[in-house]
Design a protein that fits this description.
One of its GO terms (molecular function) is protein tyrosine phosphatase activity. Keywords: Hydrolase, Membrane, Protein phosphatase, Transmembrane, Transmembrane helix. It is an enzyme of class 3 (hydrolase). The protein is an alpha+beta fold and about 1000 residues long. Among the domains are: about 80 residues, no CATH class; about 210 residues, Protein-Tyrosine Phosphatase, Chain A (Alpha-Beta Complex); about 280 residues, Alpha-Beta Complex (Protein-Tyrosine Phosphatase, Chain A), CATH 3.90.190. It is about 25% helix and about 15% strand. It is built from 19 helices and 45 strands. The strands form 15 sheets. The protein has a nine-stranded mixed β-sheet. The longest helix is centred in the first third of the chain and has 32 residues. It is elongated, with a radius of gyration of 44 Å.
């Protein structure tokens, strides 16, 4: 501030110059240019290094005869931030935020990390931070926070990015820096990110808030609310499924100890076989006594009495034989003395031996040491050869066998002896059997609950069937008749069945095969039980229904019915892939109740499906498959299981497909991680290549048959969609199923001649085609589309018009109308209305995952606006048209189910046309395109993982394949790591 004289000559100050200096140099400057002559006080702001400390100020005016007239010069300034003292040379304390008092260096009015300005020597208390400790530490911090910055220096609690802690843990992690995983026993594997407590509770078998503690002794199941079966040894059972940990008490069998021993067995876990001396091989299931049911205080005596009676019978028989031989000897007077002596000695020896055996048994009775036959499975067949096959050699095995081999092996399956069917053949129950010769064995039949006040029967034509591990896994039943429908539904409710697999149509070849036991809509009543239809999902080869069963005064029970609709009345399904898809689906459903499987009789198709299921569990557990033993074992539980040799051969073929697809099912959450593993090089090739090789070996023989060059000019004829038979179809058209339709896609060649173009438009006009996709691999194709300018039809017998056109780098899109003539007696065209059709012409481009995904997304957008069929066309009618159809089908499955098996879907399509995706490059591109779709799509972000929780459990997080999931398998089996099983079948 410069003050001029106030009395006179104020003008003399005009044009003054002010300069400031530090110890050596000029640092500030100002020159007056106002030309004012009456200013009393000048306020000026210097330019230059104005933040530096000033040691000297000068004021001057240049020129001759000039007088500098002024009153006073005052300079005002502050030290730079963080400095103090007259020359601003001292540093403020670190305890001050930014500034301190210029003269004393004390903090002005605030401290950082301390609570007592200006001294700032009292640190913030725990949990406080900032200026004068006025802020509270975030609850995201583990422990306390930094008193000065508030950041979480000791880590985050429920967040993953210290020290800022802005990114929350995922739903399956918790704790300091999200370093802990939620308990695997949390439902959905989801827990509170702060304390690890399970948000949705525990899986069955576990307790406490974090689900880390097993159910207490004697309890199991959800919330540990179920009591262990009283037949469990020591009262202990598995905390998850209730199976008895230490086995069963005498007289009951594993796994849940709810069923009494099968006929011919007794003791703990029914592991001992009744003595061969017992009549009909039957004995007391508790102590093994023959023919008598022993009590607790008389078991020893009863056993001894039974054996003594048996011995008396033996003695009488021996005496009778000796007397008979002596009498015969007397009649042989012409025998030599030596011969007579030999026969007499033989008779004497027989008596001595018999007496010796009797004495031995008496001694054993007295000492209660009755010998028992060596333990062996029920009705075990003594085999002359090992019929098991290693999984890794199964493709080679199948390639080396023909139908005659399977016929001969099927005929060797032994008949089951020592079984009875008294109850099923009882006259009052015979009418409940659909076929006279098919009813359950007495030892394995299902018993219905009976009312003592009513004269109802406990009989139903259904049998318990053991799984691979001898657990009661299935109920094989005949399809219900009118007379047995109520009993069938009653069985479902009493057994608390979660899953029903139906393998027959209600009517086949005009014959009723099964009565409908679910309502066509809403509700129906079966006896005292109400059956309500929940949801129904119809797919190409099967239908899934959700049913609710309820009884007055009881709880409602829900079950899932999977109705396979592609098994013909005679023979076997035309393809194995669809049945494997159903088996795969059933295996994903979590249940500890018997799975009911039925067809019409409950033996042929039913036995084939159950055998496939058991064989796949054997493959997963041991790396071996044994069809002969599996079917033999099924027939011990129910007659005629796997009824024909064609079913037996089909079983092998289906298992081959299932093994190739084993452990290849991926979810939207693990797909890309799994793909990275599949693309890793392993012993010179990737696992993805091994997967493709195993898949292709199934179709190699079909490919050889299809290598012949077909030159039929008319490639669009014989296209009757109502009667499609791929094996007999002579045209170049290929009909493929969609997600819910048996025929959704039609593959065709791009027309190359005028005649082909006309036939193509006839195909479009005749059937409900809503979308045409033409993949142009080069520009050398026939122009079969109408011109936008004159709308003249091009190579078409119909009136075609383009009503919309758009083009980008990947495709040209048209909307077309096709005007068809009226129906005449000679015309096969049945449309006479104008329908709009979308035509996408994919221009030549690089067929990588990025471009393919853009194209298929546009195809699906167009398809979603209509309900018609889709034609995919390419140069040879298969390569890229087939690829696009498979990709569309895979995306439909992924959107609806959140998981898929690419080998299963590709195999299903290749079973109809082996040339589709027959090269590894396309197979890899298919995976990459699906992966890109998942990565770029937002629709899966919040998808509920519980939809496929069972899948994740069954695959045991196989995506984290680090080689530590080894299972000790059967000795001599070279296959050990079950996570690698899908690749083992490619040796």
């Amino acid at each position: 501030m410069v003050k001029s004289r106030g009395d006179t000559h104020r003008e003399r100050l005009q044009g003054f110059v002010i300069k400031t200096y530090d110890e050596k140099n000029e640092i500030g400057f100002y020159k007056d240019t106002s030309s004012l002559n009456n200013v009393l006080i000048y306020y000026v702001i210097l330019t230059g290094r104005v933040n530096n400390a000033v040691n000297l100020i000068s004021i001057s005016i240049n020129g001759q005869d000039i007088f500098l007239t002024l009153c006073e010069v005052e300079a005002y300034g502050e030290c730079p931030a963080g400095k103090w003292s007259l020359p601003c040379s001292k540093q403020c304390s670190a305890l001050c935020p930014d500034t301190c008092e210029r003269d004393t260096g004390k903090c002005n009015t605030v401290c950082i990390g301390y609570s007592n300005p200006p001294q700032c020597d009292t640190a913030c208390s725990s949990g406080k931070w900032g200026i004068n400790c006025r802020h509270t530490c975030s609850d995201r911090c583990e422990g306390t926070c930094n008193a000065k910055t508030g950041q979480c220096d000791q880590g985050c609690k429920g967040y993953i990015d210290p020290p800022l802690c802005k990114t929350a843990c995922t739903s399956i992690t918790w704790g300091t820096n999200c370093s802990s995983n939620c308990s695997e026993h949390c439902y959905n594997s989801t827990c509170n990110s702060l304390n690890g407590n399970c948000i949705y509770g525990c899986k069955p078998g576990f307790q406490k808030a974090d689900c880390t503690e097993n159910c207490p002794k004697g309890q199991w199941g959800q919330n540990c609310s179920s009591a262990c079966n009283e037949n469990c040894y020591d009262g202990r059972c598995n905390n998850v499924n209730g199976s008895c940990v230490f086995g069963c008490i005498d007289g009951f069998q594993l796994p849940n100890c709810t069923m009494k021993c099968f006929r011919g067995t007794y003791g703990r876990n029914c592991s001992s076989n009744c003595s061969s001396t017992c009549e009909n091989g039957e004995c007391d299931p508790v102590n093994g006594a023959c023919g008598l049911m022993a009590t607790d205080d008389s078991s020893g005596t009863s056993t001894a009495i039974g054996i003594v009676l048996a011995l008396l019978v033996v003695i009488l028989i021996v005496i009778a034989i000796i007397m008979f031989r002596r009498k015969k000897r007397l009649q042989q007077g012409n025998l030599s003395a030596l011969e007579r002596l030999s026969k007499e000695n033989l008779a004497s020896a027989e008596i001595v031996n018999a007496e010796t055996k009797i004495d031995t048994i008496k001694n054993e009775i007295e000492n209660q040491k009755i010998p028992v036959e060596e333990e062996q499975p029920y009705n075990e067949v003594v085999e002359v050869e090992d019929t098991s096959i290693k999984v890794e050699y199964f493709n080679s095995f199948m390639a080396s066998k023909n139908e005659n081999f399977f016929l001969k092996q099927f005929e060797k399956i032994p008949e089951v002896n020592n079984v009875t069917q008294h109850v099923g053949l009882n006259p009052e129950n015979k009418i409940k059997n659909r076929y006279k010769n098919i009813c359950p064995y007495d030892h394995s039949r299902v018993h219905l609950a009976t009312d003592p006040d009513k004269k109802d029967s406990d009989y139903i034509n259904a049998s318990y069937i053991r799984g691979f591990k001898n657990e009661i896994k299935f109920i094989a039943a005949q399809g219900p008749q009118k007379a047995t429908l109520n009993d069938f539904v009653k069985m479902l409710l009493e057994q608390k069945v979660d899953v029903v697999v139906m393998l027959t149509e209600l009517v086949e070849d005009t014959k009723v095969k099964c009565e409908r036991y679910w309502p066509e809509s809403d509700k129906m009543k079966a006896g005292q039980i109400k059956v309500k239809l929940g949801s129904t999902q119809v797919f190409a080869d099967y239908t899934i229904r959700n049913l609710e069963l309820s009884k007055k005064g009881g709880t409602t029970h829900s079950l899932t019915q999977i109705h396979f609709t592609s098994w013909p009345d005679k023979g076997v399904p035309s393809t194995q892939w669809s049945l494997v898809d159903v088996e795969n689906h059933v295996n994903f459903i979590k249940t500890n109740k018997p799975i009911v499987v039925h067809c019409s009789a409950g033996v042929g198709r039913t036995g084939t499906f159950i055998a496939l299921y058991n064989i796949m569990r054997q493959a997963e557990e041991t790396g071996l498959v044994d069809f002969f033993k599996t079917v033999s074992k099924l027939r011990e539980d129910r007659i005629f299981m796997v009824q024909t040799h064609s079913q037996y051969m089909f079983l092998h073929e289906a298992a081959q497909v299932a093994i190739v697809c084993m452990r290849t099912t991926l979810t939207i959450h693990d797909f890309n991680d799994r793909l990275k593993l599949l693309e890793q090089n392993h012993l010179g090739k990737t696992k993805l290549e091994s997967e493709f090789k195993g898949l292709s070996e199934i179709f190699d023989h079909q490919m050889k048959d299809d290598d012949k060059d077909e030159t039929d000019d008319n490639v669009y004829q014989n296209s009757d969609l109502g009667n499609v038979d791929q094996d007999k179809e002579k045209s170049h058209l290929v009909y493929l199923p969609g997600y819910k339709e048996k025929v959704q896609f039609i593959l065709a060649k791009l027309p190359t001649t005028s005649n082909e173009a006309k036939e193509f438009w006839k195909l479009v006009a005749t059937y409900n085609i809503s979308l045409i996709v033409a993949i142009q691999e080069d520009s050398d194709t026939l122009n079969y589309l109408p011109n936008m300018k004159d709308d003249q039809p091009v190579h078409s017998p119909y009136e075609l018009k383009s009503i919309y056109f758009n083009k980008n780098k990947l495709w040209e899109e048209r909307r077309l109308t096709i005007q068809t003539p009226k129906v005449t007696k000679t015309s096969t065209v049945d449309r006479d209305e104008t329908d709009a059709i979308t035509h996408l012409s994919c221009v030549p481009c690089v067929m990588d995952s990025k471009n393919l995904l853009k194209i298929i997304k546009r195809c699906r957008e167009c398809q979603s606006k209509s309900f018609g069929k889709v034609i995919f066309m390419c140069k040879n009618g298969v390569t890229w048209s087939g690829f696009m159809a498979v990709l569309s089908l895979l995306l439909d499955r992924l959107d609806n189910e959140s998981y898929l098996s690419i080998p299963l879907v590709v195999g299903t399509i290749r079973s109809l046309e082996p040339r589709i995706i027959s090269k590894f490059e396309q197979y890899r591109t298919l995976y990459q395109t699906i992966g890109r779709h998942i990565e770029t799509s937002t629709q899966y972000t919040n998808m509920d993982r519980s939809r496929y929780q069972t899948l994740d459990n069954k695959q045991e997080n196989s995506v984290q394949d680090k080689g530590d999931n080894n299972i000790n398998t059967k000795e001599g089996n070279e296959y050990h790591n079950l996570d690698e099983l899908v690749y083992a079948n490619t040796a």
